[in-house]
Design goal:
Layout lengths: L8 H4 L2 H10 L2 H14 L1 H18 L4 H55 L5 H42 L3 H46 L1 H6 L3 H46 L1 H6 L4 H43 L17 E8 L9 E8 L4 E5 L6 H9 L6 E6 L2 E2 L8 E4 L8 E2 H5 L7 H11 L2 H7 L5 E2 L6 H13 L5 E5 L7 H13 L3 E5 L3 H6 L2 E6 L2 E5 L1 H7 L1 H9 L11
Parallel strand pairs: 3-10, 3-11, 6-9, 9-10
Antiparallel strand pairs: 1-2, 1-4, 4-5, 7-8, 11-12
The structure holds adenosine-5'-triphosphate.
The site of adenosine-5'-triphosphate has 14 residues, from helix 9 and helix 12.
InterPro entries: AAA+_ATPase, ABC1_TM_dom, ABC1_TM_sf, ABC_transporter-like_ATP-bd, ABC_transporter-like_CS, P-loop_NTPase, Type_1_exporter
Organism: Streptosporangium carneum
GO molecular function: ABC-type transporter activity; ATP binding; ATP hydrolysis activity; ATPase-coupled lipid transmembrane transporter activity
Length: 577
């Protein structure tokens, strides 16, 4: 059975300690890996020497037999390398497999503890996701060990080989190689950070697209396509920025490869006369070039490529795996607000980093139980304000709270938004009315009476009638949506032109019913009559925002007086043409 003494190691600290523990678990495995690595990098030791001797002492000296003997030695080194490479894979496997098992123990443990704390069985999707992360971490560790080890053994072999061939060559090869390596190592932290940002941005884009695809029906029904597309678009733009920033650091990686891998070739060629003066023949120069082009440059290339990708992936996946095994944290996701008071402090919001702000530095206090109508010209930001209060949009700066809880963390059942386009699905009328909250029949009947749906229920033939969007007029759909919201326990109700398809009398009935209901009512007004019914009115007019009662605003707020002047009470003219 597997030795479990180190089984707690992954959870005890960060990724570096976990990797170190995996490497040092059994020093004999490292020795075995080292021994086979010597065999695997045998060609890097002899390749230049064999070529140089084969030319200088063999073919060029008229002794082809000796030339072929040196080449045969090189062939033998390749055979040794083949055997070594196979054994290296086995040795790397014996290091990473126990590491994988420990990580699996860790995540299964964490998943079980989490599900026990949540009171339900472990989710298959969560287990599968963790398992995938463990596999990725295992593969990344194997790749990092392979690459770093091969680099170290190759460099040592090449230095030994060049020393045997002609030590003066090292003067031309080592300085640019060390500079290239240092450049890469210096760029590694920034590269790791940006690669990580890119991986995270990539995953968030995939998550946003998956969420959008899953909610397409609702998005279409609520006509929220533009808003959702803008949100996903912002995420895509974030990913593009992360990609560009990664590309800039990747350029540094290419530069390090050029300096460390290819500058030595140029220096050997340029320094050939100097080498010849020190006794080098054509074979020595060719041998030196072979060392650099066949061993040193590829080893640096593999290190740059391998550490740049696998190293970062190892760190990101390990961090996740280690986190997924931690004890469950207290649930902080959503909170029930203490009341339905709405507060905005210094709120600024724009639909994109370069777009003009729709809402700038807005302060607003709506006490619990208030009834506020929001008016203003089309496109001024009324729906944006409603979306900010509902937590559908987050401010770029400032805070939006409901009952002291940040808007995006407010418990879903504590507030309800009814948009302009009402959502009715195929099912019975009763199912449509109680979709957001279960309600006994008498409560449903009260809502139906309060909101003026009695004749609609009669026309449809009762609550068990099957309905769908095509069967109802836009106004009837709005009535169903209003009754559905009315039946919820939400203390904060936001009507975003939710009565625009009702006639003025039906709108008055519905709004008065909501005004009588307990809690705070925010109405994005479609007609000025909505405003006069509200206790207070928020006038949005570009940069200026004013809050007050109808009479006060008529006297003190010219934009409101203008809007009111357009209004003829006898025909309940609409505010927004
Ligand atoms: N998803 C979006 N992406 C980009 N811009 C948007 C988005 N939604 C709204 N806007 C812009 O933001 C501004 C405010 O829009 P909003 O819908 O909040 O105004 P409104 O006052 O509710 O208008 P209306 O009365 O016509 O519904 C407008 O210029 C609009 O074009």
């Amino acid at each position: 059975m597997r030795d479990r003494r180190h089984a707690a190691a992954p959870g005890q600290a960060g990724p570096y300690r976990a990797v170190r523990a995996a490497l040092l678990r059994d020093p004999r495995l490292l020795l075995r890996l080292g021994a086979w690595s010597v065999a695997e990098t045998a060609p890097a030791l002899v390749v230049g020497l064999a070529v140089a001797r084969a030319i200088d002492e063999g073919f060029a000296a008229g002794r082809p037999g000796l030339g072929f003997a040196w080449l045969a030695l090189l062939g033998g080194a390749w055979l040794t390398a083949a055997v070594g490479a196979r054994q290296v894979v086995v040795a790397v496997g014996s290091i990473v497999e126990p590491f994988r098992e420990e990580l699996l123990d860790h995540v299964v443990d964490g998943t079980l503890r989490r599900s026990a704390a949540a009171g339900h069985g472990p989710g298959a999707a969560a287990v599968a996701r963790s398992n995938l992360q463990v596999e990725l971490a295992r593969d990344a560790l194997a790749s990092v060990i392979t690459v770093v080890r091969s680099f170290a053994f190759t460099v040592v072999s090449v230095v030994l080989g060049l020393t045997t061939l002609m030590p003066q060559v090292l003067v031309l090869v080592l300085p640019p190689f060390v500079v290239g390596l240092c450049l890469f190592l210096l760029s590694l932290p920034a590269l790791a950070r940006r690669q990580r940002d890119f991986i995270v941005a990539d995953e968030r884009t995939a998550g946003a697209l998956a969420a959008m695809a899953g909610g397409l029906r609702d998005i279409a029904a609520c006509r929220a396509g533009d808003r959702v597309a803008a949100d996903v678009g912002r995420q895509v733009a974030r990913q593009a920025r992360a990609g560009r920033s990664l590309a800039r650091v990747t350029a540094m990686r290419t530069a390090s490869l050029a300096v460390g891998g290819w500058l030595p070739v140029l220096l050997i060629l340029a320094g050939a006369p100097w080498l010849v003066r020190h006794g080098a023949g054509a074979g020595v120069i060719l041998g030196a070039l072979v060392y650099v082009t066949q061993s040193l440059a590829p080893a640096l290339g593999n290190l740059v490529q391998g550490l740049g990708m696998s190293g970062v992936r190892l760190r990101v996946t390990l961090e996740r795996v280690l986190r997924s095994g931690e004890p469950p944290r207290p649930v902080t996701a959503r909170s029930v607000p203490r009341d339905a008071a709405v507060e905005l402090r210094g709120v600024t919001f724009a639909y994109g980093p370069h777009a003009e702000a729709v809402i700038s530095d807005l302060d607003l206090s709506v006490p619990d139980g208030d009834h506020v109508a929001v008016v203003g010209p089309s496109g001024i930001g009324k729906s944006t304000l409603a979306a900010l209060v509902t937590g559908l949009l987050r401010p770029d700066s400032g805070r939006v709270t409901v009952g002291g809880v940040p808007a995006e963390r407010v418990d879903q059942a504590s507030r309800v938004l009814i948009p302009q386009e009402a959502y009715v699905f195929r099912g019975t009328l009763m199912e449509n009315l109680t979709y957001l909250a279960a309600a006994p029949k008498p409560a449903v009947e009260d809502a139906v009476t309060a909101l003026g749906l009695t004749s609609l229920v009669a026309r449809l033939g009762g609550y068990s009638a099957e309905i769908h969007a095509g069967l109802l007029s836009p106004g009837e759909r709005q009535l169903v949506a209003l009754a559905r919201a009315y039946l919820t326990p939400a203390r904060l109700v936001i009507l975003d032109e939710a009565t625009c398809h009702l006639d003025p009398a039906a709108e008055a009935l519905a709004e008065e019913a909501f005004a009588r209901r307990d809690g705070t009512l925010l109405v994005v007004a479609h007609r000025l009559t909505s405003a006069t019914r509200a206790r207070r009115i928020l006038v949005m007019d570009g940069a200026s925002v004013q809050l007050g009662r109808h009479e006060e605003l008529l006297a003190s707020c010219p934009p409101y007086a203008d809007l009111a002047g357009l209004w003829n009470p006898s025909d309940s003219q609409e505010l927004v043409p």
